[in-house]
Amino acid sequence: MRSLILFTNENCLEFSMNVLPQEIPIKSAILKKLNQDTPVIAQLQIEPNILYDLGDGLTAFLTGTKSAYYSTTNISPVRIGNMEGDNIKLASSLATLSIKDNVLYVADAETVYLNGKKIECGEYDLTIGDFIWVANNRIIPHCEYIEVQGINYSSNLRCEI
Questions:
Q1: Nearest to 60 by CA among 139, 136, 137
Q2: Do residues 153 and 88 touch, judged by C-beta distance below 8 A?
Q3: Can the peptide bond before residue 77 be classed as cis, meaning omega within 30 degrees of 0?
Q4: What residues have CB less than 8 Å from 134, skipping those under 6 apart?
Q5: How far apart are CA 136 and CA 60, in angstroms?
Q6: Which string of b and e fits 122-135 if b means at least 16 CB within 10 Å?
Q7: How does pLDDT run across 51-99, given as a tens digit for each residue?
Q8: Of 30, 71, 83, 144, which sits 20 to 30 A from 160 (CA to CA)?
Q9: Residue 48 per-residue DSSP state
């Protein structure tokens, strides 16, 4: 199922494909200019899997890929970044993070959001249902596996599904 993701300097929010501009709780001159009775997607004409800088501190992304599920059994920590050897190697971000024992360690926080809030470098406790956005990739850690939805990444982990 596709979703519209809107990133600000502080948050990322996920919406259905039919969301109207008036239903989006973001103060933005861009959104105010849109016809309030027509879905945002129909007016922006954005393609899936591409980050669009709309200006005014707002970036739009239309999801378009299915999730992939990777085994993390006996992998600790799970490393995510753009370096050789990272378990999930991101091509579209300089962010560097790892997950170990239900803790997210962020060494470089470029474009990293945890549960919709932009985060800085540091440590963050993870619980069931937490999700991480790194650029145009959504990462959901689970017990013994990790779910990744997006493009411009590769993984050396065993794909489960």
A1: 136
A2: yes
A3: yes
A4: 80, 90, 93, 95, 97, 111, 112, 113
A5: 10
A6: eebebeeebbbbbb
A7: 899 998 999 999 988 899 999 999 999 999 999 999 999 988 889 999 9
A8: 83
A9: B
C-alpha distance across the termini of the chain, in Å: 17
Structure token pair of residue 133: 């956005």
Place of tokens 């962020």: 106
The neighbour count for residue 24, using CB atoms within 10 Å, is 17
pLDDT score of 161: 62
Q: Which of 110, 133, 115, 138 is nearest to 125 (CA)?
A: 115
Place of tokens 């959901």: 140
What pLDDT was estimated at residue 109? 84
Q: Give the bridge partners for 48, in sequence order.
A: 62
Q: Give the architecture (CATH level 2) of 68-155.
A: Sandwich (2.60)
pTM above 0.85, yes or no: yes
Domain ranges for the chain, please list them.
4-62, 68-155
78 contacts 98 by C-beta, under 8 angstroms? yes
